[in-house]
Amino acid sequence: MLLIQLIINGIQVGALYGLTAVGFSLIFGATKIFHFAHGASFAISAYVFYYLYAVLLVWWPIAILAACIVVVLFGVALDRYVYGPIQSTDGSFFTIFVGSFGVAVVIQNLIGTVFGRGFISVPSVLSRSVELLPGLYVAPTAGIAVVTAVVCFVALQLFLGRTNIGIALRALSESPALVRTFGLNPKAVSTCAFALGSLLVVPAAVLTSMTSGLNAAIGGRVMLISVAATIVGGVGSLRGAACAGLLLGVAENLALWRFDPQWSEAVTFLILFAFIVLRPSGFFGRVVTS
Amino acid sequence: MIAYLVNLATLVCINAVLAVTLNFIMGYAGIFSLAHAVFFGIGAYVAAFIALRWTDSLLLQLPAAMLIAGVISAALALPALRVRGDYFVAASLGFQVLAATVFSEWKSVTGGIGGLVGIPPASIAGHAFTDPLQFLGLAGVTLALVVVLTTAIVHSSFGRSLKAIRDSESAALAFGKNVALIKTLSVFYSTAICAVAGVLYADYLSFINVESFTIDASTLFMAMVIVGGIGTVWGPIVGAVLLTLLPAALTYLPFLPRTEIGSVQQMIYGLAMVMLMIFKPDGLMGAKQREA
């Protein structure tokens, strides 16, 4: 029974990891920017939601909407004012990584200073567990997480496949030069990628604030997981990132069966490490060793 | 006041050793490691372990720490041989997280979160470095040796092979360079010397715990290299001086609560990293290299 419980918890966590990782993967695929500050986006939206909903007691749809707006603005501003200038002078991986990483460091400490470094969580009836079978506890958030993840993923696939902006996004990942030839502005398309990718962290951020809680350092953790899921899933493959996110979530929880909770992060790393050494291209990706 | 300055100078020397060794793999080998604090920690824990159980002799602690750090560096060299750039950064980040967990959980050796207390001061041939001024001398001499040695390696044929691999791995391979061996050796060298800094740190403070060896420390070391100027001789040293003195300088700002100094410091260097990348990606000392 414990095993089933852990698998269910794993799927709940994994669905949210997958969603965050898909956002990261979308940005990386379209713009080739390794967006280390994606974890910061997650932390920002989670704390905006927490502050509005749990402190100011705003009605929850408005709180979520506000979190969406803030995180999209953050993503787009980063693209415009940090990555854009860096790319126009020196587009090497290293400068972009350092810039992105610097932003992540600043945001983490800003949140720590404003909201404190302790654990906080948003109280909600949705995270109260119900005993489904003897010894098996499931909270409504588990169902919500899975349903939201599936809905978001399907919606994203439809968007990328059917709409003009979606097709432009996929074109940008294939060839920025061709995007320009067709009269589209690659910068505008890249802004869309950042807006969409950042938006995808909101459901995960809101649900995480209700279930496992938040602290100032959560951005770093989310970043590690998104990066790991993107690499394990295969860079450029959204499906891969979603599956890998799920895998990491389940693996992390299954580890609790035998190990202390402190080691669950180590499991994520071991999977990432094994993939980097044995299969750097991930599940579905192409080999990128350059 | 003198004691305060001597303390700062000693920490600057130790941090400068770390920055110089990190710059060696970042600037010349193109291996952007976010796990440098791991090897700093290994050096410190090995030194503390030996000092608390067997001997305070530096001549025994140093080789042991260097050897163990060098062997564990295989965990870093392995992904470095397979992937580059962002992928490697991710791997090293994961390694750092794992190592921090080991440091805080392996209580019989590392003392867990509480750390190890009462590490005896180091000694060479029976002479104990109890006087802070003498210890500063020791740290300064170590720094000088590390800078000279690292510069010599960079200018040797090994260093040229290293830079060739950084700029184009396939070209270096085509010229018959043993890429895997050169990369592994450079990581070995960097981490072994990094462990030396760890030994000095443990012997100097006589107290260590996991907080000094977390991702925050790795970020700080990387910031030192970047702010100073990656791939330059003096850049990492300048970066180490600036970022070590920053928290000390911040304590003089009366309106800052003491508990927030750590955060403010991280915000400043995070912002410095972003601004430098936008306006001057070579770092503070980078321009001089360009003129030459």
Would you mind describing this structure in some detail?
The complex is a heterodimer of chains A (290) and B (292). Chain A is 73% helix and 2% strand. Chain A has 290 residues and is an all-alpha fold. Chain A has one domain (2-278): ABC transporter involved in vitamin B12 uptake, BtuC. Chain A has a two-stranded antiparallel sheet with strand order 1-2. In chain A, α3 (60-89) runs antiparallel to α8. Chain B has one domain (2-211). A two-stranded antiparallel ribbon of chain B has the order 1-4. Chain B has a two-stranded antiparallel sheet with strand order 2-3. The longest helix of chain B is centred in the first third of the chain and has 27 residues, at 2-28. Chain B contains 14 helices and 4 strands. Helices cover 74% and strands 3% of the residues of chain B. In chain B, β2 and β3 (127-128) form a beta hairpin. By secondary structure, chain B is mainly alpha-helical. In chain B, α1 packs parallel to α7, α1 runs antiparallel to α10 (179-205) and α11 packs across α13 (261-279). The A-B interface holds A 34, 82, 85-86, 89-90, 92-99, 101-106, 108-110, 112-113, 220, 224, 227-228, 231, 260, 262-263, 265-266, 268-270, 272-273, 276-277, 280, 288-290 and B 32, 78-79, 82-87, 89-91, 93-95, 97-98, 101, 104-105, 215, 219, 222, 226, 230, 260, 263-264, 266-267, 269-274, 276-278, 281.
